[in-house]
Amino acid sequence: MKRFDCGKLLTAICMTGLIMWGNNTMAQESSMIEKHKVEKWSVKDRLAFRTNMVDWILTTPNIGIQYDITPWDYNKWTLGANVKWNPGTSQTFEPIVDYSILDVKLEAKKYFRQTQARKKMPKFWRAYYWGIYAGYTDYTVILKNGYTGKHVGLGGTAGWEVQLHKFKNGTLDLDMGLNAGWIYGKYKKKADNENGGFVFTEEKDWHITPFPIISEIKVALVYRFKPINEKYSKSKR
């Protein structure tokens, strides 16, 4: 009759326990890796197209494009370009009312969402943003008085976006925000002449505004292929 070996039994039990513990640890690590796996977005997922409804009310067609700086799902920085243009009207008589504008802006924005630490009831469904812009504007505006001029601008932008409607291949979002900053420009003021018409005189040469002014109010519609609810909320692993 063989002698019972307690040492071998204890060793077998310990080895079995270590193997089970190791398998469980590997499963947990695999689960964590899968959970925190970095997702890479396609070019289409990184794109957004926008148009400002305020400008359309002012009879100014406009379009903008925005692109995420990196393809990773933790990216929160974007670059964008916006153009609005109204060529005005061609007239053979002195206009009482005239409006023409060319405005080009470049923007860099960072998105973020409210956290529990910042607010008791954070609005997770909103994607807030802040950033900077630079732009160029050439304009003519004639109402009762009139001005024509051009300027370059530099300032900040801030606002928030929220999803309005989800389509099969994208989403329509609402962007509420504003731009404000300093402008460096020149202009001429309308002055009546003796023939009953007017000319642009009283010129003010290049100058900078002494304080920031609001350059754009945004109530914009934004189309994305990747829903905003799935963007700008993750942190870098």
Helical content band: 10-25%
Rough outline: elongated
Largest sheet: 8 strands, antiparallel, barrel
| Beta-strand content estimate | over 45%
Protein described:
With 237 residues, the chain is mostly beta strands. The chain has 2 domains: 37 residues; 191 residues, Porin (Beta Barrel), CATH 2.40.160. The chain has an 8-stranded antiparallel β-barrel. The longest helix has 30 residues. The chain is elongated, with a radius of gyration of 30 Å. The N and C termini lie far apart (60 Å).
SSE blueprint:
Blueprint: H1 6-35, E1 47-52, H2 53-57, E2 62-68, E3 77-86, E4 98-112, E5 127-142, E6 146-166, E7 171-192, E8 198-208, E9 213-224
Antiparallel strand pairs: 1-2, 1-9, 2-3, 3-4, 4-5, 5-6, 6-7, 7-8, 7-9
Key words describing this protein structure:
eight-stranded antiparallel barrel, 237 residues, single chain, Porin, elongated, 15% helix, 2 domains, mainly beta, 2 helices
Structure summarized in a few sentences:
The chain is mostly beta strands and about 240 residues long. Helices cover about 15% and strands about 50% of the residues.
